[in-house]
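The records we work with from here on pair a chain with its fold. These numbers are not coordinates but entries in a learned vocabulary of local backbone shapes. To see the layout at work, look at the sequence and tokens printed below.
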Amino acid sequence: MDENNDKMPIDLIDIAQKVWKARKRVLLYVLIGAFVGLTIALCMPNSYRAFTIVAPEGTKNPRNSSMGALAGVLGMNLTGTDKEGINENLYPVIFKSSPFLLEFAEMKVEYKKDSIYFYDYILEHQKYPWWHYVIKSPSLLMKLFRSPKDEQFESSKALQARYVGLLSQKVKVDNIKDEGILEISANMQDPVIAYQLAEKLLRTLQQYITDYRTCKVRDDLNMTQLMLEQAQNNYYRSDSIFAQMVDRNQNLISKSAKIKLERYSNERNLAFNIYQELGSKVETTKVKLQEQTPIATVIEPVNTPFEPSSPNIRLFIILYAFLGASVYISILIAKELIK
């Protein structure tokens, strides 16, 4: 038999004609898919997205030479050589880290006219579609046979990890168009809580970056202030001793008395010089701390979302309608391949 006859090509025109003849059946599958998509979308809980857009200090266009010497307050370096700042690629890492997310655990939120901890809201007041409980049914059944000791262990360790995992999926930070402008967003099932979380995200991130950028300067300032306090005490003590020696030796003209007075005078002057120098250093360090404290300009403030951002019902209907048509057309092609 001829090799060309062994490998018969698929007749696309013939398949297209068969699809056209079965267009009513294709339309039926489209309607079924659209209905399935609508059903799935309606079963999913609404999610509200609150966001804010922030421009960190010193994150202008790097091509602007007049701004090239400014370092970004949130770690953005225009020249790419700043090793003390935080690169914009690290912001998503910070947002996913456990210490950062645990900062919000004790935040009070309003839920159904009650004030509760955000930790409890994430773990106990989240809504899920019905298939979530079907998938989780084995683990739910296993909980019925656990001992109280196992439950206590889970509440102290596993629940915290679960809280971090859930919250990490609901917060996000993006660098818009590589211009150093950050978009911070929070997705929650309650619009007011989404607003509160986005506000808290902005403040906490600013505090994290402030602590990072000013850590060394703050340590230097604390150490210098301690040294200044000790130098002040030494100076006051030396000055008091010198004054007492002057009072005691006012009418004495002995050489030994003059030598003692001169020695105490030198000690007092030395203590005063150290005290004065440390005082100047404290003021200089305070100025440096102020210069390195990050400042971010809020371009778009956080607003309470009124419309849910997900699920997108229209997208679900279109997607599943296309999937339904694809399923039926695939069946027709499979039949041709079998023939």
